[in-house]
Amino acid sequence: MKKILVIEDDHDIAINLDRLLQKHHYQVKLVNTQKKAIAVLQEHSFDLALIDIGLPDGNGYAVGTSIKNLENPCPFIFLTAMDDEASVVTGLELGGEDYIIKPFRPMELISRIKTALRRNEKGQTEIIIDNLAIDTQRGTVHKDGQELFLSALEYRLLLIFVNNQGQILSRDQLQQQIWDIAGDFVNDNTMTVYIKRLREKIENDPQNPSKIKTIRGLGYKLEA
């Protein structure tokens, strides 16, 4: 049974997370402060951590840094009400597997947890797609050895495609998966803009993309 550490100071949210995770057969440890989280991490190993950023005695970023400094670090996901892009970028640059905004949808959270655990089990921190190298631990993307500078939304969009390689994703599916960063700002028109910007950065020829293909009438697909 996979062990998940939940760092959350809101009692009601913590209890609901505990119930949700146990329902899906995870073993859960709850703590509500930065100090307790760091102490527990030094004494016990976990398969994944869910970290609230706003803690009464500090912040979740410090917990994420502590995890990265462990001899055997586990993947971690930030779960927070802070939805500004700077906070998202900070979380991803610290090595967070994901950044989920409250209120979250339970089954989406479970899906993202499963994705993070699968990636960690394979020891897969760098994903190679053609001339792209995506390091999920560092939150960096390189093309032909040169680092690309993606916005938080562009990086999230790329990860969605990476986690669904070879599958056709409709525009609605893409919008639902990145709604929690940009809220109501993500609509059909802005989705077109995000995909265009991402292609301009990762494709050799954005006008004739070889990675993110348009499947007419259905959506988009990342070629494996």
UniProtKB/TrEMBL annotation:
Keywords: DNA-binding, Phosphoprotein, Transcription, Transcription regulation, Two-component regulatory system. SMART domains: REC, Trans_reg_C. Residues 124-224 form the OmpR/PhoB-type domain. The keyword Transferase does not apply. PROSITE patterns: OMPR_PHOB, RESPONSE_REGULATORY. Coiled coil: none annotated. Residues 124-224 bind DNA. CDD domains: REC_OmpR (cd17574), trans_reg_C (cd00383). The modification 4-aspartylphosphate is found at residue 52. It holds the Pfam family Response_reg. Residues 3-117 form the Response regulatory domain. PANTHER family: ALKALINE PHOSPHATASE SYNTHESIS TRANSCRIPTIONAL REGULATORY PROTEIN PHOP (PTHR48111:SF73), REGULATOR OF RPOS (PTHR48111). This is Response regulator transcription factor. It comes from Enterococcus larvae.
